[in-house]
Every structure is written in structure tokens, then in C-alpha cells.
Amino acid sequence: MTYDTHLLWALANALVCIAIGGSCICRIRQMSADTTLALYRGLYCVLLTLTAASAVAPWWDEWPGPGCTLSNIGMMLMLLVNGRMWRYGVPPHARSDYGGLDSRPHHHAEPAPAAPRPSLLARWRAWRLAKRTNDHGTEPTTLPPLGPLG
Fold it and tell me: Is residue 113 part of a domain?
């Protein structure tokens, strides 16, 4: 390709990248950490970063060709097609503040907190007590000295 052809592809790619970047910025501005799943926030940030890198690639002598520009046009069309879902806020599939288990069947409730584990000293005392029990199942009347722990 000639230098003029490279410049035309770079210009077309930059214009498409500006459109993709604008769409990503609009969607990121609608999201918040309270209401949007982190996956969607991260994906749009990655898409914005990759689009910016593709737009400025000619600065380090990586000229976009037809393949790069056409794939960016495909991404722009994908964002354009599902843009209607984002017009009035974050769509339901990307929200994290849903209203119950019926709306998100794959959601699991938080497990109940485990009972607190006894301290190391209490476990050692129980072990020593069990070890000193005689064959009749009676417990000794005194505990062994614990040394610096007791």
C-alpha cells in the first residue's frame, strides 16, 4: 500500500475508534459500583483502552489496514445494535441490584457464618483432659499445670 492509502485507513480507523470510545464512555458513565456487575464495568474499560490503542497505533508506526478497520466497524455496529438497551440506564442483565432470587436463578444466598473456633489453649486443655481420662470414663480432679500458657 502507498502512504496515502495507509493514511486513509488510519483516518477511517480513528473515526470508528472515536465512535466506539464515545459509546464506551457513555455506558461507563451510566454504571456505578453499586448497581452494575464488575464484569461489565471491566469489559467496557478494556474495550475503551483497546480502541484508544488502535486509534493511536500509527504514532508508533503500526498502520491499521482493512482487517483492523473492518473489525472495529463490526464492534461499532455491535455497540450500535445493543445501544437501545443502554438508553435509559444499565440493562437488567448487567445490574447487580436485582430484586430477589427469582430474577437471577443462579444467585446463591450468603452462607451462614461459622461458629467461632475455640482458642488454641481451650483445645489443648480439652485434648489433655481427654487423654488423662481413665478407663472408667471418670475425669481427673485437677488439670495439669500449663506452664507459661496458663
Answer: no
57 lies in the same domain as 131? no
The answer to whether residue 110 is domain-embedded is no
Q: Which residue has the cell 451462614?
A: 112
Share of the chain above pLDDT 90, in %: 34
CB neighbourhood size of 133 (10 A): 11
Dihedral over Cα of 139, 145, 149, 150: its sign: positive
Pairwise CA distance, residues 69 & 44, whole Å = 19
* Bigger pLDDT: 85 vs 145: 85
| Residues 84 and 138 both lie in one domain | no
SS3 31: coil
Assigned C-alpha cell, 72: 472495529
* Residue 71 binned pLDDT confidence (cut-offs 50, 70, 90): very high
Q: Output the pTM of the full model.
A: 0.60
Q: Which structural domain range is residue 137 located in? A: 120-149
Final residue belonging to a domain, choices 78, 94, 110: 94
Closest CA to 68 of 139, 11, 2: 11
